[in-house]
Design goal:
Strand content: under 5%
Order of helices and strands: HHHHHHH
Number of strands: 0
Helix content: over 70%
Length: 276
Amino acid sequence: MKNNIHISTTLLLLLCISMAQVANAQSSTARKETRKGNKEYKQEHFDKAEINYRRALHDDSTAYRAHYNLGNTLYRQKKYDEAASHYEQALSTPDLNAKTRSKILHNRGNCNLKNGLGKEKRAEGMQQFQQAVNDYQEALKLDPKNDDTRYNLSYAKKLLQQAQQQQQQQGGGKDNQNQDQNKDNKDQQGNNGQNQQKDQQEQNDQKDQKGQQNQQNQPQNKKDRKQQKRQQQQQQQKKKDAERLLEAVKNNEKNTMKENAKHVEAASSNKIEKDW
């Protein structure tokens, strides 16, 4: 009986040692692939770096350095949603120090900001801008001296405010349109009775004056048609001028937002290019 217990204990010990050796081997492989990925990343071979980081995570899915660096690589390839997912997994790692967590939050905020800027209209990106604001605020709490995060937070707040204003304007425009339509309907109903009486009287008057007007208005009708044609041409020209002005304003706004986005890219790159 004692021999059986002794044998069982020995087997259990060997099993534990074997499992530890396998775990160490996997962790060693993950570190090796992560280092390879870092080398490719520095050379801006982002597609090759992505392969190495994914291999590292295949060997050790909990390697937060591989998650973080893979997120950086995906960000460089403009795969913002997938990059944010790996930042999220890196954040789930326990016992991260404050500065490391701040870096990860900063980069996830960049992903949300880029996604918001990718929307055709500011209002469509409002949710992404709000998430970016939240990430930057949390990052600043953990690292208050990070000027890059402070700048990006200010920019994200500005974009969020613009998106909210745009949404309010769209909503207000619909309400005003409905109010104007209701008012027109009421005015039209109130005037229908009066208009019917006036129309009848006007018809009678027109019958009496029709003969005289036909003789008097022949020369005048030619002048009126020329004047009406001239007015129509002027209105069309004004409309074209207004459209060109509006297009110029839109182009100017797009160029301004592109310049601001460049600052965000420069600020984020300082963080993203750092290897663990």
